[in-house]
Amino acid sequence: MSEFAGNDSLLEMFLYETSQNLEQLEQIILKTEEAGGFSEEAVKEIFRIMHTIKGSAAMMSFEDISKLAHRMEDLFFIIRENPAVSYSSSEISDLVLACMDCLHRELQSIRDGDAAGSEECRRMIERVEQLHAVMKSRVDNTPAADSPSKASGSPAAAQGGNISGNRFEAKITFEPDCGMENIRAFFVIQDLQPLCAALAYEPSELDDEAAKRIREQGFLLHITTPLSRDELVRHLSQTALLKDLEVKEAAQEPKPAKKAQEEPKQTKSDVTTDEYRFQPQSMISVGVAKLDRLLDLMGEAIIAEAMVTESPDLPATPMPDFRKATARLRRIMQEMQDAVMSLRLVPLAGTFQKMFRIVRDMGKKLNKQIELKISGEDTEVDKNVIEHLSDPLIHMIRNSIDHGIESPDERVAAGKPAYGTIRLDAHSAGGDVIITISDDGRGLNREKILKKAKQNGLLNRPEEDMTDREVYNMIFLPGFSTKENVTEFSGRGVGMDVVVKNLSAVGGTVSVDSTPGKGMKVTMKIPLTIAIIDGMNVVVGDLKYTIPTSAIRETFRPTKDQIFTDTEGNEMVWLRGECLSLYRMYKLWNIPTNITEPTDGILVLIEQDGKRRCFMVDSLLGRQQVVVKRLPSYVKRGDRLAHAAGCTLLGDGSISLILDVPWLVGAEI
Amino acid sequence: MDQRQSPFVSEQDEDTLLNRYLIFSLASEEYALEIRHVTEIVGLQPITFLPEMPGYIKGIINLRGSIVPIMDLRLRFGKESREYDERTCIVICRMEDINIGLIVDRVSEVCTIPAEDVAPTPAVKKDSHRFVKGVCKTDGKVKLILDSHKIVAEDDVPAVKSTVAGGEGR
Lengths: 669, 170
Prior knowledge:
The structure holds two protein chains of two kinds. Helices cover about 40% and strands about 20% of the residues of chain A. Chain A is an alpha+beta fold. Chain A has a six-stranded mixed beta sheet with strand order 14-18-19-17-16-15. Chain B is globular. In chain B, about 10% of the residues lie in helices and about 40% in strands. Chain B has a single domain (about 15-170), classed as CATH 2.40.50.180. In chain B, the strands form two sheets. In chain B, strands 8-1-2-10-9 form a five-stranded mixed beta sheet. Chain B has a five-stranded mixed beta sheet with strand order 3-6-7-5-4.
């Protein structure tokens, strides 16, 4: 994506919209599978999506994409126009999903700057064409199956796609007691139809039920028309027995679920249609760079505010008005900061939805029956964090399906339902978001893990001393895998530590717990945002450093007898029966300071991934939420400042360097 | 930061920038830097010291939310440093996609130096005019025309090494 930033917004828009459409399509297909067949609503939606992709791809002259979408559109056209035609819905689902994957890859190669249109895409087109031919011959052979009421369907085909004109929403209220509201509404429609490019209305079926609803709630129209608002109002106000008329300009697009109701005598589908409705799109997409700029400015504004309100030039006399004004300003600034921060937050729903596909594909392949239940998908996380979340989640879910959930026979034998259940939940807790993945499979096996750990030389403590939890969490160590036979999905022993790596890149952690025979539960803790971290500010000489609080185990002032030096001159500190390496920060980076003895300074014990080290600083300044900024690449040239992950501006405008925790605990220093 | 444009840049006409130079002085010499590199000139402000830097990098400043590294041009050119005073300025530049502030003794003017007035520096010995790509004489005073590329170029490693070595000695 970044390659494009700013230089081809049209292309970027196309990529964005198309991938949004594909995501929507995926959800529809998966829900269809759950429901056991395509509802009329779903078919229309798919048709509409394919139509949109076709159109925009053609506009961007990605011919293969456009062609593939066109063929899919043709296929669904048959299904839409001939509801009676027989087809295997799972066959079509598979085909659509395969198509989507193909389109996804095409989008990726466009993103990477490669030419679009691959061999794969053309093969896909052929596959769709074949199925299309089969379906078509079936339709031609059973002409009687065509529903007569669908004759009016063909003009609707155009309505699925791009309709030009002004969009309005009108609400008509008839005089009370006028009676036959449904018939009156029908005449309004009759009257309006020729003037509209598209027309949809609520209630959609004008029966006696509808009369009551119109009486109570009014008659709602979604109109797309070349007419202006005034012309429309003039036209509508001619309606007999009209009591009230409201016409307002509609949002971008009328809800598809509503606009799709052109045929008044539409048969109700058995499958619930609610699920396919979109949220109304009152959204715009903004480049992350712009948001970052806004965040920068926000941070600046807060500092500037402090500079004004705390200015030494202010007279010492009490200034009630000034104080009142500054208190107000501060409140507004705080609210603004919250608002700016929230701009970067996106719900987890998109990431969670992707997991349905993983579960479906793997379940099919491994012959396991699995249900995925998600909750808390509206929990919001910083955009940067979300990008690092997808892979760990996929990994853990695959692991659950592959190693956790037993085969249906095994499950029944163990007295469990044949259907395995995986739960994916998210909720926020303070500045963190907790994501749990739990399954009701066989759980982890302590003995097996210990054996494996011993084999791989990962065991460095007597096994009796280790709690179950400690043993279970060894699966996250690099080079650990309990499954003997490697499968397509997981089990190469590179899985779990990748999860840890991915999460720690955004300051998150992962842990696992399990009850043998009952299942396991993986808990991921991730910070809400990595643009803001909770940090401890410390002083070393003239320099200020910020250490992420999540990595600090404790801070203490050592006594003289706690400190000792080995034969190589490495300093260590003895802390409650544990021996830790001690590093003096001023020495590491040659920072002039007056405090050179650990007994005069403060030791900070830092721990991550089980590695612990002590660092000596002059003093602690305090804890605060800081906005992370990148250091200019000029000062990070070569090996310089490897220990600094970034920097931040403190309240007084001074700059503090944020220490890189993985470097602190891992680097050879 | 990227959005920031040189205030001297008139958008319609880049040609007006051609041969325009910012003149500033270090010790007794006057230097000329192509104006297209200059973003703004700010007064001296508190500089946050950074460890592991070559001596001529004094640290970073917070310029309205952007972090900008600061280079003492005297030290960069191997001259003696001196106390900063009220005429000391930081010239904020953008060269080779790098934003950097240059500390100079004082800024004097912006002037046009026609290309034909610029004489190449004589080759005295290797590396002798590392940062100077030409000289010119206007108003009876010699101005050294700076090579922006050389100023921000990755320095020879020894400069960094020496600081580190010094650190271990402490």
